[in-house]
Amino acid sequence: MSQPAEARTIGVSVRRPADAVYDYLATIENFPRWSTFVRTVRREGEDWIFGTSGGDARVRFVPRNAFRVLDHHVTTPDGHPVFVPMRVVPNGAEHAEVLFTVFRMPGMTGQQFADDVALVQADLASLKRVLEA
What we know:
Elements: E1 7-14, H1 18-26, E2 40-44, E3 47-52, E4 55-61, E5 72-75, E6 81-84, E7 86-90, E8 96-103, H2 110-132
């Protein structure tokens, strides 16, 4: 029986209503405004192409939904598939929690996983600054 991948869910509290946070994030063109990983965005059929420092990544998001789920499947520039769970959860009428789960990929060292987690933490802090400005 295989072992589950190590995972870490990172969250940030945002002083904005959950629907406003979700609408901002579901507008995929906003990603380069807060994510250091995503430098450019363009649409290609049902997918998005994220221009990154490592090359183009193909991304497919779940359709917009009432549950504020932003899960997406990424095909990295080197062809590896990655599932990225992401949610916006209401926390009262005027606040939201943004939750993002990072999985440790096969062959990834502990340091590489820690670096990925730190990158997501920094991006979520940037998202908070942008949304609360």
